């Protein structure tokens, strides 16, 4: 079973619903997330609700405050754009090393993930495309064969995950993302480190621009 077809857990379902509420402005910065109310809303126990809130805290969308519990964190747009910039540099290095070091088998897997992404994009299945997109980036990071670089990339990726997911909702962004992945894949298949790094850097820079436009109304 691929990551794109894996059923999501109850906690992930709740987390995604809360993320949607935050990004669509139904939950504003400072809004309190009450476990009991959320459990009633989803018809579940408080255990998956608590787990979902912890995931949101880890991503930075929610913060824990004394005597208030979990509240929607204020959106620091400038900081998020800076994180995208750093992510672009880190993933650019991953792509550079992957172009040098990926085995033929690893390149074939990366190409297969891109084909899956293409089918999800054609179906306009944002959730499946996002999951396949994550798998593509993970395979590329692994293909760098640099564990330190991969650890840094994973940490930043986890923090930016909700924002990367929702910038795909921007009109036309999936098609552009797919084309950018095609450029990255072609450079890696050609074993061209400079081209791979440049293509990945461009990919991340456009993500930052789209993200800034997409959520500026929330600031």
TrEMBL record:
PROSITE patterns: HTH_GNTR (PS50949). The lineage of its organism: Bacteria, Pseudomonadati, Pseudomonadota, Alphaproteobacteria, Rhodospirillales. It comes from the Bacteria. Residues 8-75 form the HTH gntR-type domain. Keywords: DNA-binding, Transcription, Transcription regulation. InterPro entries: GntR_C, TF_FadR/GntR_C, Tscrpt_reg_HTH_GntR, WH-like_DNA-bd_sf, WH_DNA-bd_sf. Transmembrane segments: none annotated. This is GntR family transcriptional regulator. Pfam families: FCD (PF07729), GntR (PF00392).
């Amino acid at each position: 079973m691929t990551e794109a077809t894996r059923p999501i857990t109850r906690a992930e379902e709740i987390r995604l619903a809360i993320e949607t509420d935050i990004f669509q402005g139904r939950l504003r910065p400072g809004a309190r997330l009450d476990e009991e109310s959320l459990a009633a809303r989803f018809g579940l126990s408080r255990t998956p609700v608590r787990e979902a809130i912890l995931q949101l805290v880890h991503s930075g969308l929610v913060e824990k405050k004394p005597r208030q519990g979990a509240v929607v964190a204020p959106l620091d747009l400038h900081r998020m754009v800076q994180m995208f910039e750093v992510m672009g540099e880190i993933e650019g290095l991953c792509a550079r090393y992957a172009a040098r070091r990926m085995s033929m088998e690893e390149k074939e897997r990366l190409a297969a993930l891109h084909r899956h992404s293409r089918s999800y994009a054609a179906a306009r299945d944002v959730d499946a495309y996002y999951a396949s997109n994550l798998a593509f980036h993970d395979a590329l990071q692994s293909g760098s064969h640099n564990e330190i670089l991969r650890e840094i990339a994973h940490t930043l990726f986890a923090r930016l995950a909700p924002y990367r997911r929702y910038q795909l909702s921007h009109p036309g962004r999936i098609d552009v993302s797919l084309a950018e992945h095609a450029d990255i894949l072609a450079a890696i298949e050609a074993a061209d480190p400079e081209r791979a790094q440049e293509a990945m850097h461009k990919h991340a820079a456009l993500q930052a621009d789209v993200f800034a436009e997409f959520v500026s109304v929330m600031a």
